[in-house]
Amino acid sequence: MSTRSRPLSPHLQVYNFHWPMALSIVHRITGVGLALSSIVLVWWLTALAVGPDYFAMVQSLLGSWIGRVFLLGWTWAVFYHLCNGIRHLCWDAGWGFEIDTARRSGIAAALMSVVLTVGTWVIAYAARGV
Amino acid sequence: MSLRTPLARARGLGIGHHGTHHWWAERLSALALVPLVPWFAISLARLTGADHATVVAWLGRPLNTVLTLLLIGALFHHAQHGVQVVIEDYVHSHARKLAAQLAVKAATAVFGVAAAFAVLKVALGG
Description:
heterodimer; A: mainly alpha; about 80% helix; B: mainly alpha; 3 helical TM bundles of succinate and fumarate reductases
């Protein structure tokens, strides 16, 4: 049997679309996005070390309309990657491979990411006092 | 024909001793981030709109300093491992793959150390 013509992973073209696959792709996209956007965390911490004036400037940028849109997307990406990542850790431990379980855990991860995002923003707006 | 199993023949050859190291490192850093990320997200949410002095006071508390440093370490370790897997999947030219891996390792090291230095500078009152 030849092994040369076998499709290599990831080889998305040969699969029919299904939701667990979409969740897996989003996991990878959010992962790369989070790796890139961690630069913003470094910038924020550096601004804190630089001093009050520079920190206030960074805070007002992050608090602006466009800054909040970014932070909202960031919050969701963090929690999605976290929730779906826990799902991946369960698979690594050998749990939840049944198709039904995998589908339900996927829905649970997606829902939890939204719940945790909304919860975090409720805390944020309560802290800000608006 | 050998009567030895494929596993017995593979043992001790090539990367047989540390082939799973990368896989383990990525999972361990993920496991560390499971409690650290929600803690940090909620802490930052509670600091929304806070001024410089308030955030400095928060980060200066020993527990917050230590947990933030651990978060930075696990985060950049995990980011490097994660992006490395993505590069291995999509970049097939050896030279470009090597260049991308080195760039990611360098960037995560630089940003990780910069973040840790900023935290320490704030916490130690420099």
